[in-house]
Amino acid sequence: MARRSVVRCSQGMRAANHLDDGSGIAPEAAGAGARSVFFAALVLGVGIGGFIDGIVLHQLLQWHHMVSSWPGLSPEGHHHNLEVNVLWDGLFHAVALAVTVAGVWMLTGVAQRYRALPATLVAGGLIAGWGVFNLIDSIVNHFALRVHHIYEGSRGAELTSDVAFLVFALALIAGGYGIARPLPGERDINPA
Q1: What distances in angstroms separate CA 114 from CA 20, 187, 191, one per listed residue?
Q2: What is the pTM for the complete model shown?
Q3: Backbone torsions φ then ψ of 3, nearest 5 degrees
Q4: In whole angstroms, how large is the CA radius of gyration of the chain?
Q5: Cα(76)–Cα(119) distance, rounded to whole angstroms?
Q6: Fewer CB within 10 Å, N or C, the chain?
Q7: Which of 45-49, 67-71, 113-117 has the highest mean pLDDT?
């Protein structure tokens, strides 16, 4: 037997009566809350994915820079070319920072509307976001524009590393979605 319950909206000033299954959450409100948590975490994951790429591949391993495959801009042996590549890496990190700040801002806004954020939604969104970053990087930078490759070297090594990175991106997206997806019968998040 369905009961009536009150669901508070994000401003906490208005309330609406909904029929539900006794959990205190209207099904349409619960689904929207889960989507907003997942999307905010996904945006944050895109920014963090950019930082992981820039720090690990550009700086620590030094496998490539942002525009290291553009004709005439290979950083090897040319100080000016290295300066250009480092500048582009800095611009890339500035964009990654802006996306990360946007993701934190979005996740903070969502967190203020709910009593608790399910760790599976946040973790899944972060992992899927990292995968989305890698997918965009693969399609745009490695295959379409060819501004850099994961591992600069022979054509075979470039193609192998780029395809492996693309597969890794798809695995992160699938894994993140799998982590965030509720189990059958599991309830969604509760409004504050």
Answers
A1: 18, 14, 4
A2: 0.78
A3: -115, 160
A4: 21
A5: 44
A6: N
A7: 45-49
| Structure-token pair, residue 45 | 């994951």
pLDDT tens, 4-63? 222 233 333 233 333 333 333 334 445 778 899 999 999 999 999 999 999 999 999 988
